[in-house]
Design brief:
Number of domains: 1
Number of helices: 10
Low-confidence stretches: none
Strand order of the largest sheet: 1-4-5-6-7-8-9-10
CATH superfamily: Metal-dependent hydrolases
Number of strands: 10
Length: 320
């Protein structure tokens, strides 16, 4: 694939990248130096690292192994040169299925990361199709499971947020969860997970209409915030990763516009934040081109509205 890397437009616009990953896996590395190279002229001032099941401790109690990921992030960012505050906020993993025992894991992350720990994420995406299941392996109905919700209840003690990654048809479960935990800020990753492959291929309009209905209902919950991004993932069905040449910013902006604008219309700019989801979305487009697309999408917004989307909402929600 020919990579499309564009020069940053509006390079002075302050950005907090509200969602990215770091890892060092066999045959695959994405470290602070890689992220800095990808930024390529955009004014990214801070970032939020989100768990990606990487760097877990190789031994010790099973439930405490995820603490290794936080240790890894602190180690690699400590070595990074000054400039962008990479992983200024950390969203870690704790197995919330442990119920009240999840507090021990959260406390461990807190002891390691201190105030940089901002939240916990759990990927709860599930689909009945065997075609989709290789991408998603959480149990059905996990968000509504009593023991899982006991784990969520632990977050309040530490004043942490909950990131959830779902598929679009699970958004009603997120709404029920938000209503049960009104004092916990719940962050919906990747605009709620539209999916247009496998049994959903050729049903794009049906998926979009269902997604719109679910997003509109979810917006009634004042404790929910939506991350705008993640559309470069393979399962979204845009197919950019299969092309010979990556799309440019204008094309990306046009494709993302219906999804982003619907969220902004219903959640407002104070209920939305922009994310890169790198390097996961790197299969579809470059980091610099993606942020150019976000800037083109919002060029008719006021300065205050753009500040909220690019910086202020993330700073407020994650206490950066």
């Amino acid at each position: 694939m020919q990579i499309t890397i564009e020069r940053a437009i509006e390079p002075g616009l302050p950005i907090i990248d509200a969602h990215h990953h770091l890892w060092d896996r066999p045959g695959s590395r994405y470290l602070p130096a890689d992220l800095r190279q990808d930024i390529n002229g955009h004014n990214v001032t801070k970032t939020v690292f989100v768990e990606c099941w990487s760097g877990h401790r190789p031994d010790g109690p099973e439930e405490l192994k995820p603490l290794g990921e936080t240790e890894f992030v602190l180690a690699v960012t400590r070595q990074a040169p000054p400039g962008v505050k990479i992983a200024a906020g950390i969203v870690a993993f704790a197995d919330l299925k442990l119920g009240e025992r999840a507090a021990r894991v959260i406390e461990g992350h807190r002891q390691i990361a201190g105030k940089r720990l901002k939240g916990i994420r759990y990927v709860t995406a599930w689909d009945p199709s065997p075609f989709i299941q290789p991408y998603m392996n959480s149990p059905q109905g996990l968000l509504l499971d009593t023991r899982f919700q006991q784990g969520i209840a632990c977050l309040r003690k530490y004043d942490l947020t909950l990131d959830v990654a779902t598929l679009y048809h699970q958004i009603p479960e997120v709404r029920a969860l938000a209503q049960k935990f009104p004092e916990t800020v719940i962050i919906l990753d990747h605009v709620g997970g539209p999916i247009m492959i496998g049994p959903y291929a050729g049903r794009e309009e049906e998926v979009r209409q269902d997604w719109r209905k679910h997003i509109k209902a979810l917006a009634e919950c004042p404790n929910v915030v939506v991350k705008l991004g993640g559309l470069g993932l393979r399962h979204t069905g845009f197919g950019w990763h299969e092309r010979k040449t990556q799309p440019g910013a204008e094309e990306l902006a046009a494709a993302m516009r219906p999804w982003f604008m619907w969220c902004i219309e219903h959640f407002g700019v104070k209920g939305c934040m922009l994310e890169s989801n790198f390097p996961e979305d790197k299969v579809s487009f470059s980091y610099s081109t993606m942020w150019n697309a976000f800037k083109l999408l919002t060029r008719d917004f006021t300065k205050a509205e753009r500040d909220a989307l690019f910086h202020d909402t993330a700073a407020r929600v994650y206490k950066l």
